[in-house]
TrEMBL record:
Protein name: Permease
Transmembrane segments: 13-33, 94-112, 132-152, 164-185, 197-223
This protein's UniProt keywords: Membrane, Transmembrane, Transmembrane helix
Keyword Transmembrane on entry: yes
Highest rank taxon of the organism: Bacteria
Classification lineage: Bacteria, Pseudomonadati, Pseudomonadota, Alphaproteobacteria, Hyphomicrobiales
């Protein structure tokens, strides 16, 4: 009986993994072309039964994690055997992915917190979850644009105009993200459009600042560990 349950679990896992090849690009396209609708969709799906949630899309946290994995694989393929600038702590793929997942999750977390505070709802894990899920959707194209932009810029010598194209991709993704957040905040709260713009910029800058500080601290700890490690 236990063996049959194991086979059933493996069957369901394989089917779930295979369906990502279909629903990942579909979900990503829907987010880019209909962002506000998808943010509302993410919150609505959490009210459905567990087995019916996100039946026609990839769930927001999984989509964000898959995007980071794909970008990490692409980065490794493009970089090849070039020496890494990261400390040993972050040269491990698992550590780097965990750090990036936590770092980029700051953006949906801060925007979700702002939305909840302005709606007057009590801050709990249950009330925060719908806003965080919807914000995870909005973060995916932004993360994609920033990462691709940085990769293009880092290969400017091999790719003519790489720096310019990288800057344009990153800038386009950032503008898209800020515009979506502004509309989302103004529609979901009692904020005026101007106040929503200012709030969006403020939250975004705070998230970037915290991200940079966290990256600097992790890098500092990593380099100190490298210096203290015994040389072979």
């Amino acid at each position: 009986m236990d063996f049959m349950k194991l086979l059933k679990s493996i069957e369901e896992l394989l089917y779930e993994l295979i369906t990502w090849f279909v629903f990942y690009p579909l979900t990503f396209w829907r987010i880019v072309t209909r962002p506000i609708s998808m943010l509302a969709y993410a919150q609505k799906e959490l009210t459905e039964k567990d087995h019916e949630q996100f039946d026609d899309a990839v769930s927001p946290p999984i989509l964000l994690l898959l995007t980071l994995v794909l970008l990490h694989v692409l980065e490794g393929a493009v970089a090849g055997r070039a020496p890494s600038v990261f400390p040993t702590l972050l040269q491990d793929d698992r550590n780097l992915l965990v750090f990036r997942a936590l770092a980029f999750s700051l953006f949906p977390l801060l925007f979700a917190t702002m939305k909840l505070r302005n709606s007057g709802a009590r801050m709990t894990r249950t009330t925060l979850k719908p806003a965080f899920y919807s914000q995870s959707y909005a973060t995916v194209p932004f993360v994609m644009a920033i990462s691709l932009g940085m990769q293009l810029s880092s290969h400017a010598q091999a790719l003519p105009g790489g720096s310019m194209w990288g800057l344009m991709v990153a800038l386009a993704g950032t503008i898209w993200y800020l515009a979506v957040e502004t509309v989302w905040l103004s529609k979901g709260t009692q904020m005026s459009r101007l106040r929503a713009v200012l709030a969006t910029l403020g939250i975004f800058l705070v998230a970037v600042f915290v991200l940079l500080v966290a990256a600097a601290l992790v890098a500092l700890v990593g380099y100190q560990m490298d210096q203290q490690a015994p040389t072979p």
